[in-house]
Specification:
binds flavin-adenine dinucleotide; FAD/NAD(P)-binding domain; 8-stranded mixed beta sheet; FAD-bd; 449 residues; single chain; NAD(P)/FAD-dependent oxidoreductase; FAD/NAD-bd_sf; FAD binding; alpha+beta
């Protein structure tokens, strides 16, 4: 049998989707030599199971990548959202008007993924290798020092200082490295479809997000006049979808208050969906390897944080490790710094998202904040900023905010809830399995999109 050829790089990244392409570009610009492996062979390959509302929290990294400019160039929608609640609409732009609040982008993955992959391939220092499937880690003692797998040419091996798993929810790198993981149930299922000809109220292109408690829906305009409409329901309603998925989906969308008129619009896709999507949180680094994007944290699709955190975690990793990779510092220390940053940025948010994914009715804090945000434009902005993941939980529930919301609502949180708030937000324990967060205020999920 011929000996397989081994190539050597500074970094090898497995997975050329949102997280992997972002990391490859950022590493290479800092001078690292990067192998970017992707099992799919076509440059136009894209993730189908995604509704691609990219939160504003990712704007700085999108700007750094040059992606924001490129997305403007292809007509991606600078996104914002209005939120339906039983207390009325939460309208974050009521005071500012459109285009003032921080924004991310809404752009179909069939546009985003090939664009990002092309940007990565064109970055000097990145060797994009489509059609390469990783199925083995190379180790020296306990340390991961490379990957191996198969391509159309046969087997291949790549050695590198650092192996990055950007290979999604079912990450091969994480599995082979035995990365500690925690999973949590997701008690909702979702179906979505694409439409042309959906008019948007007042000509604005804000998404409309429905908090039907416990069911949810969203109507999100994208580039090229295409709107994606998603139904995200409690699993208690799965039976309704058993015999006729499209019929049940259409009936649900028709039932939305002030909902889109899908009967006058053209549906341009099948109904796409998933009924089981558990949340997975893995420790984002170990000896010689790191995980980014969904490989590190697969949160609830309902909260629309996946693409933003994929790019942001790429940026956190590159920021923490690039000096060490280029010979200036200790890689293991840098990886620990990345793990801590990841937990600090995502831990409390993910904890609340996982709690809301139980599809239980609103808890007291949620009812309090949603009602107040529906009644007050300043609180509406505040709610949206938190949901855009631009604010910590501590700031979201700061004492002056709670006092203002009490005035607006005309009722107060219970003593017990106030006490739990005073105890503070969850503390990220970066060294435990997954994100290992504990919370005194479980269930303050708001402004998910
Ligand atoms: C129903 C649904 C709706 C969603 N809606 C939103 C939304 O509105 N907004 C949002 O921000 N997020 C949303 N998400 C989440 C979002 O899709 C993910 O968080 C995001 O795609 C993660 O990007 P990634 O690069 O980490 O992983 P992925 O996009 O999953 O990419 C992983 C890549 O690794 C490659 N790969 C895997 N294994 C191997 C291997 N062994 N060898 C080589 N290559 C490999 C894959 O081919 C793929 O290209 C949604 C998810 C779902 C399920």
């Amino acid at each position: 049998m011929p000996e397989r050829r081994t190539e050597v790089y500074d970094v090898v990244i497995n997975g050329a989707s949102v997280a992997g392409c972002a990391a490859a570009i950022l590493y290479a610009r800092r001078g690292a030599r990067v192998a970017l492996l992707e099992r799919r062979s076509g440059m136009s390959a894209h993730k189908v199971l995604c509704t691609h509302y990219i939160q504003a929290s990712a704007y700085p990294v999108m700007a750094e990548l040059g992606l924001a400019e490129a997305l403007d160039g292809i007509g991606a929608v600078r996104n914002s959202a209005d939120y339906w609640t039983k207390w009325g609409w939460i309208k974050p732009e009521a005071e500012t008007g459109p285009g003032v609040l921080p924004h991310g982008y809404s752009v179909r993955r069939e546009s985003l993924d090939p664009l990002l992959r092309r940007m990565a391939a064109e970055t000097p220092g990145v060797d994009l290798k489509p059609g390469h499937t990783v199925n083995e880690l190379i180790a020296e003692g306990d340390r991961v020092v490379g990957v191996a797998g198969t391509s159309a040419e046969g087997t291949f091996a790549v050695r590198a200082e650092l192996v990055v798993g950007a290979d999604g929810k079912d990450s091969t790198v994480a599995r082979l490295a035995g990365a500690p993981a925690e999973t949590a149930d997701n008690n909702r299922f979702s179906y979505f479809a694409y439409f042309r000809g959906i008019p948007h109220p007042e000509g604005r292109r804000s998404a409309r997000v429905y908090y039907l408690d416990p069911d949810n829906a969203y109507v999100m305009p994208n580039e090229d006049g295409v709107t994606v409409i998603a139904a995200v329901l409690s699993k208690a309603r799965l039976d309704e979808f058993r015999d006729d998925i499209e019929g049940a989906y259409r009936n649900f969308v028709r039932s939305l208050p002030e909902g889109p008129d899908i009967d006058k619009a053209e549906m341009i896709s099948k109904v796409i969906g998933t009924v089981n999507y558990p949340l997975i949180s893995r420790r984002p680094s170990g000896s010689g390897y790191a995980l980014i994007g969904d490989a590190a944290l697969t949160s609830d699709p309902l909260s629309a944080v996946g693409c933003a955190w994929a790019m942001q975690s790429a940026s956190w990793l590159v920021g923490a490790t690039s000096d060490a990779l280029l010979g200036n510092g200790e890689l293991d220390t840098a990886l620990t710094a990345y793990t801590e940053r990841h937990a600090m940025e995502t831990g409390a948010h993910h904890h609340l998202i996982a709690d809301y994914a139980q599809a239980r009715p609103f808890n007291e804090i949620e009812a309090f904040m949603f009602e107040a945000a529906a009644r007050d434009s300043r609180l509406a902005q505040h709610f949206h900023t938190f949901g855009s993941r631009l604010m910590t939980l501590e700031d979201f529930m700061a004492p002056d905010v709670v006092a203002h919301a009490e005035k607006v609502n005309g009722w107060s949180l219970s003593e017990e809830t106030l006490r739990s708030l005073a105890e503070g937000p969850p503390v990220a324990e970066a060294h435990t399995a997954g994100h290992g967060t504990t919370s005194a205020v479980a269930g303050t999920e708001g402004g998910a999109r």
